[in-house]
Design a protein that fits this description.
2 domains, alpha/beta, 3-stranded antiparallel sheet, 7-stranded parallel sheet, Rossmann fold
Length: 301
């Protein structure tokens, strides 16, 4: 079905963060006279065919990480699964951890990844995971600390259990995996930590999550200084709102409001976060360390 633009109205986003970023409300009409309203960041002309504005599927260059080995924590779903797939597409051998998502992990195994079930909150089990992954891969070139959870609550209702579980999963597990991996990692290796814009800017109801992701940023910067002598780079990525299970739980009305605050007008794709990880894991990023990269569609401008 082809939708054509009937009318276009320019609107200013009602947001103090982006008061001058315009979007357009377009009335669309099909050949049967049916109409619907859409928001777009493109200024369409009357009668022009409307195109859905979606990110094109990404596929990494086949030899970008040729002969590299990559370990990803929490790699069975969401951004983690996208990183696993992107690394394999780039020519790397990949092992990843998972806890409960057996079906998703099995699908990645069929694509060529090595799936290892473990509990990233248990230090001895994390050491065993790194040992198993290294044995199967032969060595460690890249470690991606991606595993993460949320347990959201206003601070007045925050329990010690919610606080400790999020801190341990999102931050302490990175200490466990990095400590174990560094004993086996080659010089000139890469460590990439998946933080969040919430760790940089905070968010209502997420003091535990924000603290864990901010902690990863401090961890990244300090470790980068310590490992520079071994030519091991340490960087962090702070994704914005990305199309994962976490974000899909947000009510649609709030999702729409959030998209209005993003200059690019949409949420990110896990594959777009993964693409940045692949660059940082590559030889092209050898002079980049101790940095935090926002990948958020301009949300924090």
């Amino acid at each position: 079905m082809v939708w054509k633009v009937k009318t276009t109205t320019k609107v200013l986003v009602p947001s103090p963060e982006h008061p001058s970023t315009p979007y357009y409300c377009v009335v669309l009409e099909d050949e049967n006279g049916n109409r619907k309203l859409k928001k777009t960041f493109r200024d369409y002309r009357e009668g022009e065919a409307y195109e859905e504005e979606q990110a094109k599927p990404l596929r990494m260059p086949p030899n970008f990480l040729k002969n590299k080995t990559v370990i990803v924590t929490g790699g069975s779903r969401g951004i983690g699964a996208a990183i696993v797939r992107a690394a394999m597409q780039s020519g790397a051998k990949v092992a990843f951890s998972y806890r409960k998502s057996t079906e998703e992990a099995g699908a990645l195994e069929k694509e060529g990844a090595i799936a290892i079930q473990t509990d990233m909150n248990d230090e001895p089990k994390v050491k065993e995971f790194i040992s198993q992954a290294t044995e199967k891969l032969g060595r460690i070139d890249v470690l991606v600390n991606n595993v993460g959870i949320t347990q959201d609550s206003a601070f007045s209702n925050m329990t010690s259990d919610k606080w400790e579980e999020v801190i341990k999963t999102n931050l302490t597990s990175a200490f466990y995996s990095t400590k174990a991996a560094l004993e086996k990692m080659n010089d000139s290796g890469r460590i990439i930590n998946i933080s969040s814009i919430v760790g940089m800017d905070g968010n209502f109801g997420q003091t535990n999550y924000a603290a864990s992701k901010a902690g990863l940023i401090g961890f990244t910067k300090s470790l980068a200084k310590e490992l520079a002598a071994r030519k091991i780079t340490v960087n962090a990525i702070a994704p914005g709102f990305t199309e994962t299970d976490m974000v899909k739980k947000i009510p649609e009305s709030i999702q729409a409001s959030l998209k209005q605050k993003i200059p690019l007008g949409r949420f990110g794709k896990p594959e777009e976060i993964a693409a940045f990880v692949i660059f940082l894991a590559s030889d092209y990023a050898a002079y980049t360390t101790g940095n935090v990269f926002r990948v958020d569609g301009g949300y924090t401008l």
